[in-house]
């Protein structure tokens, strides 16, 4: 979703108002289609690095995560609070490099280096705020034992 808006709008008050209005129209139409046709709609957002460590716009808490990190960097959703108010549930996918650990979902998981991914439930009125870890291998998606 962010790719449609980030390049086309300036950071002026009138553009931000217009952009927010379009967010609400698009999300409303997607929710209407989901209900009418019994669909699940998944919309992705981009993230941006958090540069300011003060109380600026990058410090907005969205959901139940105090801070979002991916690949060791602090990040924030690109579309911010306007878009956050348009969605029913928020999931956050992140990835980090790991040195070793049991991967593969069983006690016989292998010790290795690679990329570990996490899926966080940031906000969903019908789900607890939990997360799970997984790796992607040639064999498929494998859960990680903690």
From TrEMBL:
Transmembrane segments: none
Domain RecA family profile: 1-47
Family matches, as InterPro entries: P-loop_NTPase, RecA_ATP-bd
PROSITE patterns assigned to the protein according to its UniProt record, in alphabetical order: RECA_2
SUPFAM superfamilies given in the database record: P-loop containing nucleoside triphosphate hydrolases
Annotated protein name in UniProt: RecA family profile 1 domain-containing protein
Organism: Salix suchowensis
């Amino acid at each position: 979703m962010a790719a449609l808006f980030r390049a086309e709008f300036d950071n002026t008050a009138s553009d931000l108002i217009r952009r927010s209005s379009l967010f609400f129209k698009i999300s409303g139409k997607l929710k209407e289609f989901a209900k009418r046709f019994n669909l699940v709609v998944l919309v992705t957002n981009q993230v941006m690095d958090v540069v300011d460590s003060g109380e600026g716009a990058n410090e907005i808490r969205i959901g139940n995560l105090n801070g979002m990190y991916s690949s060791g960097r602090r990040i924030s959703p690109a579309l911010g609070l306007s878009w956050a108010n348009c969605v029913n549930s928020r999931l956050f996918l992140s990835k980090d490099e790991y040195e070793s650990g049991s991967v593969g979902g069983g006690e016989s998981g292998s010790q290795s280096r690679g990329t570990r991914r996490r899926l966080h439930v940031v906000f969903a009125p019908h789900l607890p705020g939990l997360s799970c870890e997984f790796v992607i291998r040639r064999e498929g998606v494998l859960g990680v034992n903690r």
